[in-house]
Amino acid sequence: MLHEFTATLLVVVAGLFPVINPPAAGFIILTLVPDATPAQRADLARRVTANSFLLLLGALSVGAYVLSFFGVSLPVLRVAGGLVIGSAGWNLLHSSADEKKAHPVPPEEAENLRERAFYPLTLPITVGPGSIAVAIALATGWPGEGPAAPHVAGVGVALLLLCASIYLCVRYAAAVERVLGAVGSRVAMRLFAFILFCIGVQIFWLGLSELLRSLPPR
Predict the structure, then answer these.
(1) Burial level of 175, CB count in 10 A (0-12/13-18/19+)?
(2) Which residues does 153 contact at the CB level (< 8 Å), separation at least 6?
(3) Do residues 197 and 93 make contact, with C-beta atoms less than 8 angstroms apart?
(4) Where are the alpha helices (DSSP H) in 71-172?
């Protein structure tokens, strides 16, 4: 029982953490809301974390059924998600500091900031198509009779750990930026953007290779 719990916990965290990439999400959100006050940033971190938890829980629990209802296969979702993630990474990799801060949110526009907490700051920046595809893929790997209690507990603890990392990275991204300095922050941003692009390419290739294997032989 403990083995099943630990295995599920490690699989979910190891599968989702690199795709979500909370440190990169925190830096990207920081560039999109550079003028937010510490109080606004704390509120934004709570909202993004709550939204991320609900999205991941929905993908793990009913995501496969939603795809089946609309007739979308998992490989197709991976291809589409890989394209979106790769495109986002590519745009961030080649954007300038001025472009990233072209639409800052003034501190007094708290209502606008709350509206942006779900889109685009949670979806697709923090939990995007790639994360949802991975979560659905993990859920489809459960036994046919459904997940047992250790699996459910492992998934719950894994989601709590992932969401805690999201909160910390979004909440304290500004503090990390001050420590790194302007040059260090730009270097970190480019690095995370490149990792995001690579993750998108990897997800795209996984989906494309599955689609190619499903083609009938000539």
Answers:
(1) exposed
(2) 5, 8
(3) yes
(4) 74-94, 97-100, 110-115, 129-140, 149-171
In tens, the pLDDT along 92-128 reads 788 765 544 434 445 556 677 888 899 889 988 899 8
Architecture of domain 2-214: Up-down Bundle (1.20)
pLDDT digits (tens, 9 = 90+) for 72-102: 888 888 888 788 778 877 887 887 655 444 3
Provide φ and ψ at 214, rounded to 5°: -80, -10
Residue type, 50: A
**Rounded Cα distance, 200 and 180, in Å:** 27
Length of the chain: 218
- Asked if 201 contacts 82 with a C-beta cutoff of 8 angstroms, the reply is yes
Domains of the chain, residue spans: 2-214
Tokens of 41: 């940033």
pTM (2 decimals)? 0.78
Kindly state the tokens that stand for 17. 């953490």
Give the position of tokens 């606008």: 112
Instruction: Quote helix, strand, coil % in the chain, to nearest 5.
Output: 80, 0, 20
